Amino acid sequence: MKFRADRDTLLETLVTASRATSARSGPSFGVAGLRLALRGKQLEVCGSDPDLVIEAQCEVAGESDGSVLVPSRLVVDIVRSFDQGAVAVVAGDEEVRFSSGRAEFVVRVALGAEITRLGVPEQQGIEIPGSVFADGLRQVVRAALVDDSRAPQLTGVLMVATEGGLRLIATDSYRLAFRDFAGMTVVEPDRQVLVPAKALAEVQRLSSAAKSDGDHTIVFRYSDLDAVFELDHVRITTRLLKGQFPEVERLIPASYAYHLRVPRNDLEAALRRVRLVVRDTKDATTPVRLALHDGGVDLTVLTPESGRAEESVEGDFQGDDLTVAFNPGYLLDGVEAVRADTLILEVNDPGKPALVRGDGEDEYRYLLMPVKVS
What we know:
The chain is α+β, with helices and mostly antiparallel strands. The protein is about 20% helix and about 45% strand. The strands form four sheets. A nine-stranded antiparallel β-sheet has the order 14-11-12-13-26-25-24-18-22. An eight-stranded antiparallel β-sheet has the order 6-2-3-4-17-16-15-10. Strands 5-1-7-8-9 form a five-stranded antiparallel β-sheet.
């Protein structure tokens, strides 16, 4: 295999594919591997772990076709270290030579090693508006469980058909995010698709990066085992999760007794400031207390290690004075996800889930469990 490529173009392609790699994907290296395959002027770079495959393509000046498996992180760092300009790549049976200007690296290849290949569903692709879907993923993926050791099914985002279109749901059992897409027919009425949040985070990242070029389309396919998202020159294939996803819709009360309306940016800025006192402590989940009262809300974070932080935010509160406490990171996630200028926090009781939403944005809801404090 032999080709020349623009350094920035090659680097972007390598980085995109490498985001799927893990130490489990390259046993011969003991580190993650990338498969580089050249056919004519088209270079395909494939990275994977056992449950996720990302294939990214770019155009290069190809001289001879071929394929090779290289260590992901090392090759990305090598290409990143080059100055802007052309990068020459020449692969032999046992090594790959990367050169640019006066710099040259020789990298050993993994003989006989393979990376994961997942099945691509054969159904006709479903087109999804990219910018709208990416915005919904930004709001919902943050609520999924990160560690799969407790409840693997909660590391996914549930895609389910509704009467009006599509709903995305994610929860880690401490918070819950919903996003509805009116008129978006993606999943069959009798089907639920549980997609790993890790894969959807990559779809969101790539789709958001493409916004600068105008609106775009994501092509979606799924089967009983796998799902595929295609956009521009990238294809993301992921195994679907199994297991019973909790029936979370019933957790949202029909009404709330306490309502706080506050400028979203003001509340977000105040949260970021008061949580500074727990940023470097042993327990970064030290709660933030919200004292809701006529005229707004007072935020307080208190820790024996670092001290105390207080700030008030003006707003409109309906109800008797009430104090409720939350994990500051979880609350900030919900506040960040709201798009509206005015944020609404609704509470029934300091010990029951509270609801965060944007004023006039009923399609997104973020339910958050309070923290018990003395």
